[in-house]
Amino acid sequence: MSNLDPAPEELTCTSAPNAHGRVLEPRSVPLGGPRAMPVRRTLPQRAQSLIGAWCFVDHYGPDDVSVTGGMRVPGHPHTGLQTVSWLFRGEIEHRDTTGAHAFVRPGEVNLMTAGRGIAHSEFSTPGTTTLHGVQLWVTLPEPDRFAEPGFEHYTPTPVDVEGARILVFLGSLAGQASPVHTFTPLLGAEITLPAGLELRLAVDPSFEHGVLVDRGTVETSGVTAGDGNLVHRPAGSGALTMRAHTDARVLLLGGEPLGEQIVMWWNFVGRSHDEIAEYRREWERARTTREPGRFGAFPGSWEETIPAPELPHVRLRPRG
């Protein structure tokens, strides 16, 4: 998924933990398409820019595709990150410059490593009438941020834990482990809870965690959150408890604090203004000439690519 804001702000991703957990409210952002499909963005924001290496959380739907136009994101670039696509309903077609052509379906994770540079497109399929899911980004750490681009697909097996249904798509939880490769220790899991259930999970105490509520009302870490909210909990505890006030579904995200200074602007993660400016120049050159470069050879089916916005008039500053 692309950040389609025509005037994206500098996104400062910091890794310093907060003293207390908090509920993060989403803001609405138009994704694009004929009628601008809205997404709810909870990360990054001023109150919290990173959860482990997770740096971007977009939550959308359930959307009637006949009203919103669905997801229509032509070819666009990424650097220095991994994208994680997870659906609850619908289907999305993915193509990228590694040659990968795949579909995102409910209960199946697609992870794309941008590394030194990649470009991809995402379109909801013609048979999709309702679209509902999340798009997540993970920052690559300094030693690995120029890694080879790549693509992985994995279908986790659901397990029942104390009455909750858990799908572990990244990392390990509740005796389940994902084979999908990440460059820092991470956790990603979908958890469905019936009303009234209190679920206690053993988690890595070195991880900070985020609980994104897809539907329902959930109490965790001493706070209560509803649809679209993201609860952040700092590192330090080896147990995480969730109590469902209603039937609920959440995503549990986690990871070790990144501990690095980065700059995130538009679809790029880098370490300096000059680096981001160079990525932008290389993308504009690639989309104009269609010559393979940092972002690879464009698929022959691409008829359109997204132009990069103009950089702000002030220098982007790395922070952390």
TrEMBL record:
<feature type="region of interest" description="Disordered">
    <location>
        <begin position="1"/>
        <end position="23"/>
    </location>
</feature>
<feature type="binding site">
    <location>
        <position position="76"/>
    </location>
    <ligand>
        <name>Fe cation</name>
    </ligand>
</feature>
<protein>
    <recommendedName>
        <fullName>Pirin</fullName>
    </recommendedName>
</protein>
<dbReference type="Pfam" id="PF02678">
    <property type="entry name" value="Pirin"/>
</dbReference>
<dbReference type="InterPro" id="IPR012093">
    <property type="entry name" value="Pirin"/>
</dbReference>
<dbReference type="InterPro" id="IPR014710">
    <property type="entry name" value="RmlC-like_jellyroll"/>
</dbReference>
<dbReference type="GO" id="GO:0046872">
    <property type="term" value="F:metal ion binding"/>
</dbReference>
<dbReference type="Pfam" id="PF05726">
    <property type="entry name" value="Pirin_C"/>
</dbReference>
<feature type="binding site">
    <location>
        <position position="78"/>
    </location>
    <ligand>
        <name>Fe cation</name>
    </ligand>
</feature>
<dbReference type="InterPro" id="IPR003829">
    <property type="entry name" value="Pirin_N_dom"/>
</dbReference>
<feature type="binding site">
    <location>
        <position position="120"/>
    </location>
    <ligand>
        <name>Fe cation</name>
    </ligand>
</feature>
<feature type="domain" description="Pirin C-terminal">
    <location>
        <begin position="189"/>
        <end position="287"/>
    </location>
</feature>
<feature type="domain" description="Pirin N-terminal">
    <location>
        <begin position="39"/>
        <end position="138"/>
    </location>
</feature>
<dbReference type="InterPro" id="IPR008778">
    <property type="entry name" value="Pirin_C_dom"/>
</dbReference>
<dbReference type="InterPro" id="IPR011051">
    <property type="entry name" value="RmlC_Cupin_sf"/>
</dbReference>
<comment type="similarity">
    <text>Belongs to the pirin family.</text>
</comment>
<feature type="binding site">
    <location>
        <position position="122"/>
    </location>
    <ligand>
        <name>Fe cation</name>
    </ligand>
</feature>
<keyword id="KW-0408">Iron</keyword>
<keyword id="KW-0479">Metal-binding</keyword>
